[in-house]
Amino acid sequence: GKTLKILVLAGDGIGPEVTQQAVHALRSVADLGGHHFEFKEMAIGGVAIKKEGSPLPSSTLEAALDSDAVLLGAVGGNEFNQLPPDRRPEAGLLGLRQALGGFANLRPSFAWPSLSSNSPLKPEVVEGSDILFVRELLGGLYFGEPRQWDRETNSAWNTMRYTRDEVVRVTRIAFELAGKRRKKVTSVDKANVLEVSQLWRATVTEVARDYPDVALDHQYVDACAMHLMNTPRNFDVVVTENLFGDILSDEAAVITGSLGMLPSATIGGAVNLYEPVHGSAPDIAGKGLANPLGAILTAAMLLRHSGGLESDAQAIEASVRQVLEQGYRTADLARSSSPGIQVVTTQEMGKQVNETL
Amino acid sequence: GKTLKILVLAGDGIGPEVTQQAVHALRSVADLGGHHFEFKEMAIGGVAIKKEGSPLPSSTLEAALDSDAVLLGAVGGNEFNQLPPDRRPEAGLLGLRQALGGFANLRPSFAWPSLSSNSPLKPEVVEGSDILFVRELLGGLYFGEPRQWDRETNSAWNTMRYTRDEVVRVTRIAFELAGKRRKKVTSVDKANVLEVSQLWRATVTEVARDYPDVALDHQYVDACAMHLMNTPRNFDVVVTENLFGDILSDEAAVITGSLGMLPSATIGGAVNLYEPVHGSAPDIAGKGLANPLGAILTAAMLLRHSGGLESDAQAIEASVRQVLEQGYRTADLARSSSPGIQVVTTQEMGKQVNETL
Ligand SMILES: CC(C)[C@H](C(=O)O)[C@@H](O)C(=O)O
Ligand SMILES: CC(C)[C@H](C(=O)O)[C@@H](O)C(=O)O
């Protein structure tokens, strides 16, 4: 059996309810496989602001750095919308990402066969799609200095900045992952306008030479936003800078049919960070409506990337597939009430996955 | 009749062939309506680099400033991909945009009924969609200083910058246009992370108070990229910064079924600029495959916004609708060969529109 210290940061909105189901899945895997997973829970985001006056209390940060993996729910809430970026719940998440040091945010966007009718895209367009976004997570506009809202001049600015080394390291991860998949990398930039994208493109092109068996394609971000919808099957691994990855991976949620299905793993740093792609969704929080499958699939990524437990990860993924095939759906997935579809709560969905495990 | 001096900048790739058809349509309108349109042609982009060593020769710029409206085709080509941003064909376009001073780029994304099966989105998702993007065109990362690729430190940066006044003026245009439509503005930003977006959101919120009959909604750019695909009918006018508008309006091309259908008008400056949204598409240039309807609909916007010729604009739009209903399609629109569909060349498509006029 394997031993893992997992820090659980459930956060705001639907964070706690979906994270609870992910923890259940991890506990089941531990029981079945004889692993020893030690869970600790701490505060982040809006919850931490209220309890401790900071979106990322130092106790949380210390516990995160002391763990083998961090499992996060979601942060953010409407009541904080008036605060400046550096005091919002999101600042806690961004500070955590930076402190943990993971620069490669892996976001798979997979067309689950039994959900193909859930997508706004035609079934024949999405069927068979299997995209892995590798989003650079520590650079670009999110962290670039200088940044300011200057109230005297009534102007504001942020900086999109990359160094060559930052591009090299995330590109290597993309190519290595592509080598184990369909051997194709699409790098996305805006090199016809931005200097920072020119550095990006030149660096990716250079790194690609070390991976002769993987094909490289460059796309402008505007064109890519369109191609992803027209021909999603043409993509294998997509590597891109922080904000482009934020936008494109959310857009690609429509391939899966719901943001609620999407997991993510951030690797490459001191401690890996695992978070579903969906946000805190305050409007449906606490109502049992949230889809826990994104969080549960995130737990599978934790097993894969922090535990080296590939077969356990696959067991969770197979359970999710089976539960979907049996017709279980949370509200976000149950647009049309077809025969054989059964709408379940967050908890019931988690329970189904556990029983299938 | 109306007199208009129109500068035609056909540019690169498919620019010349589609622009030719747009000019035909304008000539027909002039003949029918007793207008006097004077056309002048000059070079921009790659063609200008080759002929005159600059993507925006001063003669072109002078002629543009001396005209009543500029009709542009497209710029860019693969042979220029190695040049730095400030010497590429695109720099000519960006320099022209800046010199003409138009800050509001209007990009309608309209679900033509007879094209609903062309979209990768389900017909029931796109039917009835009618979105007007108002993209800020002179600010943000495109023009923000400082910007540099520093080869010594191997790093690069661009600046996303806005002043309050820049946001105010484009927001006013969005609200005024929404007042004549379905009275709804969606402002798109990333205010949970970026200071520049916080200024954006605060300013839009303030301007909105002057338009009490128009509803305002704020969305984060990542969420918007998803909502546009899930529920396109929920959008009326979308106002956003330069790069977000670039990405989202290209993405929204899938609502129409093809980028080749999309027109744009840039207003608010000394001289209005009209350009189809599609690029130079070098791979299909000169083959008669390009769709001229984006350029022809752009000509309609020229009549509307520079000529005050609303009924002439509508005549062109009605002709386009009729030609589509009759089953004429350029290659980009003719994915599936259904009965009644006739694939035509760029020239034939232009001719059909003209005859219908
Ligand atoms: C909550 C927000 C700061 C975050 C981001 O933009 O990175 C979210 O949208 C995401 O994609 O994880
Ligand atoms: C060609 C390029 C500079 C341009 C832009 O990014 O503005 C194009 O993509 C557009 O949308 O008009």
UniProtKB/TrEMBL annotation, chains A, B:
Family per similarity comment: Belongs to the isocitrate and isopropylmalate dehydrogenases family. LeuB type 1 subfamily.
Lineage: Bacteria, Pseudomonadati, Acidobacteriota, Terriglobia, Terriglobales
Manner of cofactor binding, per the entry note: Binds 1 Mg(2+) or Mn(2+) ion per subunit.
Keywords assigned: Amino-acid biosynthesis, Branched-chain amino acid biosynthesis, Cytoplasm, Leucine biosynthesis, Magnesium, Manganese, Metal-binding, NAD, Oxidoreductase
Matching Pfam families: Iso_dh
Positions of the record's site feature: Important for catalysis: 142, 190
Catalytic reaction annotation: (2R,3S)-3-isopropylmalate + NAD(+) = 4-methyl-2-oxopentanoate + CO2 + NADH
Residues of the Isopropylmalate dehydrogenase-like domain: 5-353
Protein's recorded name: 3-isopropylmalate dehydrogenase
Superkingdom assignment: Bacteria
Positions bound to Mg(2+): 222, 246, 250
Subunit structure: Homodimer.
Binding site for substrate: 97, 107, 135, 222
Native source organism of the sequence: Acidisarcina polymorpha
